[in-house]
């Protein structure tokens, strides 16, 4: 009988330890994943001189408002000549281009007379609901010979809030609203975040300074707090189980 009770107590302790480890692992996963999930960022493989397919991932961070607009700006110091958007039900799109005078001269000696300035998506329906995300796909012309391309994005909510994903990181800490960054060529194979990098400059044929609106919305902090709460609850449950198993023993 004593051995049986001892076995039950040991089983209870192992179960409690398993619960604690699982809870802490879940919390750690949420803490690591939440900052990236909360950012508007771009994904895609890009090589100099080749066309590329870019996917912009847009999460809605608000608890009460939906995302109804997205504007992506294309830099003049890394000009892209053409772009096409994938048809997306519930959204309209507008591509703005401009003629460069004089044309931009790239590293390989080629020139570009027209570049893409921006692409804007506007929801015709409900948009991206709170707690959800959506993707926007763009097919571009030849990618310039640069290391990376910074693509500032403006996210608009149906309650009037505007969030500018335009900050470029320069230190060890990630900016609060990092701009999406597309890595090009060999840079894409090196360890680097797809947000908050530095643009590699090419000769500039001119300057474009689009206006920016102030705004802030960051879900990383609430998600991190929730992750910690999960971990603490798991540990508390494990301690309770261990205490009960010892009493029974």
User: What would you call the shape?
Assistant: globular
Q: What's the gyration radius in Å?
A: 24 Å
Helix content: 25-40%
* CATH-assigned homologous superfamily of the largest domain: Uncharacterised protein YcnI-like PF07987, DUF1775
Can you lay out the helices and strands and say which pair or pack?
Blueprint: H1 2-37, E1 41-43, E2 52-59, E3 67-73, E4 83-85, E5 91-105, E6 111-123, E7 133-140, E8 148-150, E9 153-157, E10 162-165, E11 181-183, H2 220-248
What keyword list fits this structure?
single chain; 249 residues; alpha+beta; Immunoglobulin-like; 2 domains; five-stranded antiparallel sheet; 29% strand
What does this entry show, briefly?
By secondary structure, the protein is of the alpha+beta class. 26% of the residues lie in helices and 29% in strands.
Structure description:
The chain has 249 residues and is of the alpha+beta class. The protein has helices at 2-37, 220-248; strands at residues 41-43, 52-59, 67-73, 83-85, 91-105, 111-123, 133-140, 148-150, 153-157, 162-165, 181-183. It folds into two domains: 2-33 and 224-248; 39-217, Immunoglobulin-like. Helix content is 26%, strand content 29%. β5 and β6 (111-123) form a beta hairpin.
